[in-house]
Automatic annotation (TrEMBL):
Cofactor entry: FAD
PANTHER family, per database record: FAD DEPENDENT OXIDOREDUCTASE DOMAIN-CONTAINING PROTEIN (PTHR46972:SF1), MONOOXYGENASE ASQM-RELATED (PTHR46972)
Binding-site residues, FAD: D47, R103, D295
GO CC list: cytoplasm
Keyword set, alphabetical order: Cytoplasm, FAD, Flavoprotein, Monooxygenase, NADP, Nucleotide-binding, Oxidoreductase
GO BP term, example: response to antibiotic
Domains: entry comment: Consists of an N-terminal FAD-binding domain with a Rossman fold and a C-terminal substrate-binding domain.
Chief location category: cytoplasm
Subcellular compartments: Cytoplasm
Protein name: Flavin-dependent monooxygenase
Gene source species: Streptomyces vinaceus
Top class in the EC scheme: oxidoreductase
UniProt cross-references to Gene3D superfamilies, sorted A to Z: FAD/NAD(P)-binding domain (3.50.50.60)
Length: 378
C-alpha cells in the first residue's frame, strides 16, 4: 500500500473504515472535530441489521464483541393510537434479524479496536485544496495542514469534503423531532414504561407521533415527531425548557396521559432536531483521490433505520475495496462507488416512503400495513 489514507470524521462510518483497513494491515488516520471520545453523549438504540450493519462488524472482526452488547428483548415493537390502544404488538422472540445495541457502546468497541494515535481528536477540517494527481491538502481549525493521497469524507450530514464531489446540500424533509429522556422509568414513570414495553413504541396520528425506545437502565428515550414547517421549530425558544415543553405538549392535547408524559415528564431539557436529507439518488462523478461514506454520501430520513447501518457497511466495503486493490486506489474507489450509489438510493427511497406512511392521513393504520407488507415479503 503506497497511498496514505486520511479519514475526516470518527462517526460509526469512519471508525468502521479505519478498523477494516487495520484488519488488513493498512494504516489510516482519522481527524475528528470533537475534542475527545467523551465530548458528546452518544445516545439512542440502534438496530443492527443482518444484511448490512452485522456483516460490517464481521468484516471488522468485532461481531462477538457486538453480540455482547445486545439489549435482550429490545427488538420488541408496538404500534399504538393516540388513546394508547395497542394496535400491533410484536414481542422479541429472539429470532429477529435486528438486534438492538446502544450507540455509545457500539462506538466504544470500534474506538477500542484501533491502534493508539489512529484518531486525532480536536482536529476540525475547515478547508480542502486539490493539489493535482489525486492529492489533497486539508487545513484544520488549529491552522495545521496535512496532505494525503486518499481523502475520505466520513464527516456526516454537513460534510466539508462533499463539495469536492457534488453541489448537493441536505434539505429539511418536513418532520421535526423533539428529543426527551425519562430515567428510572419503571419506578418513577410506571404507566409510560408499561406503554413503551421492552423495545420500541410508535404512537402515531396524522401529522404527528411519539416514537419511544426503552434503553438499558430503565431509560425511556423519546423522539416526538411533528410534520411542521421548519420555521415552527425555529420559533420555539428551547433555552426556556418549560415553555418549549408546553408548546410541544399542546400539539398532543387529548392524547393518553401515559403517552404525553413522555413529553412533559422529561428529566432533561427537550432537544430540537430538524430532519434533513440529501436528494434521493445523490451521486457524483469519480474525482481522483477522494470519496464519501455514510451520511456525507447519503443523509436520509431516519424512518428506515438504515443510516448507521449503512455508515458501518460503507466503511467496511470501502476498506475491503482498498485492500483488494492496494496499488490502485482509483480502481478501489470505482468498485466501492458502483455499489454504493444504488444501495444508498434504494435505502433513501424506502426511508422517504416510510416517513410518508408514518404520518399520512390514515396513520397509524398505514404504518401497520407497512409492517404487514414487510412480513409477507418475507
Ligand atoms: C434522530 C435520529 C435517529 C436515528 N436513528 C437511527 C436508527 O435507529 N438506526 C440507524 O441505522 N440510523 C439512525 N439514524 C441515522 C444515523 O445516526 C446516521 O446515519 C449515522 O450516525 C451516520 O454515521 P456517519 O459516520 O456517516 O456520520 P456521523 O455519525 O454524523 O459522524 C460524523 C463525524 O464527523 C465529525 N465531523 C463533522 N465535520 C467534521 C469536520 N469538519 N472535521 C472533522 N470532523 C468532522 C463529527 O463530529 C462526527 O463525529 C438516526 C439519525 C437521527 C438524526
Amino acid at each position: 500500500m503506497t497511498t496514505d489514507i486520511t479519514i475526516i470524521g470518527a462517526g460509526l462510518g469512519g471508525l468502521a473504515l479505519a478498523r477494516v483497513l487495520h484488519v488488513h494491515g493498512i494504516p489510516a488516520t482519522i481527524y475528528e472535530a470533537e475534542p475527545s471520545p467523551t465530548a458528546r453523549t452518544q445516545g439512542g438504540m440502534l438496530d443492527i441489521h443482518d444484511y448490512n450493519g452485522q456483516p460490517a462488524l464481521k468484516a471488522a472482526g468485532l461481531f462477538d464483541a457486538f453480540l455482547g452488547l445486545v439489549h435482550e428483548g429490545g427488538q420488541a415493537s408496538r404500534v399504538l393510537d393516540k388513546d394508547a390502544t395497542v394496535l400491533r404488538d410484536e414481542p422479541d422472540d429472539g429470532t429477529g434479524g435486528r438486534p438492538e445495541v446502544h450507540r455509545g457502546e457500539l462506538r466504544r468497541i470500534l474506538l477500542d479496536s484501533l491502534p493508539a494515535g489512529t484518531i486525532q481528536w480536536g482536529r476540525k477540517a475547515t478547508g480542502i485544496r486539490p493539489l493535482g494527481g489525486g492529492r489533497h491538502e486539508v487545513t484544520f481549525a488549529d491552522g495545521t495542514t496535512v496532505t494525503t493521497g486518499l481523502l475520505v469524507g466520513a464527516d456526516g450530514a454537513w460534510s466539508r469534503v462533499r463539495p469536492l464531489l457534488s453541489d448537493a446540500q441536505p434539505e429539511y424533509v418536513g418532520i421535526s423531532f423533539i428529543e426527551t429522556y425519562l430515567s428510572d422509568a419503571d419506578t418513577r414513570h410506571p404507566a409510560s414504561a408499561r406503554a413503551v414495553g421492552d423495545g420500541a413504541l410508535f404512537a402515531l396520528a396524522p401529522g404527528k407521533g411519539i416514537l419511544a425506545h426503552r434503553e438499558p437502565g430503565a431509560v425511556l428515550h423519546t423522539y416526538v415527531a411533528l410534520a411542521k414547517p421548519q420555521e415552527w421549530l425555529a420559533g420555539i425558544d428551547f433555552g426556556r425548557a418549560d415553555e418549549a415543553t408546553a408548546r410541544v405538549a399542546a400539539e398532543f392535547d387529548g392524547w393518553a396521559p401515559e403517552l404525553t408524559a413522555l413529553i412533559t415528564d422529561g428529566d432533561t431539557a427537550p432537544v430540537p432536531r430538524a430532519v434533513n436529507a440529501l436528494p434521493i439518488g445523490h451521486r457524483w462523478d469519480r474525482v481522483p483521490g477522494v470519496t464519501l461514506l455514510g451520511d456525507a454520501a447519503h443523509l436520509m430520513s431516519p424512518f428506515a433505520g438504515e443510516g448507521a447501518n449503512l455508515a458501518l457497511y460503507d466503511g467496511a466495503e470501502l476498506g475491503n475495496a482498498i485492500a483488494a486493490h492496494p496499488d490502485d486506489i482509483e480502481a478501489a474507489l470505482t468498485a466501492y462507488e458502483e455499489a454504493l450509489f444504488p444501495r444508498s438510493a434504494d435505502a433513501a427511497a424506502e426511508a422517504a416512503r416510510n416517513h410518508e406512511l408514518c404520518f399520512d392521513d390514515d396513520a397509524p393504520h398505514s404504518f401497520i400495513a407497512l409492517f404487514t407488507a414487510h412480513e409477507q415479503a418475507g
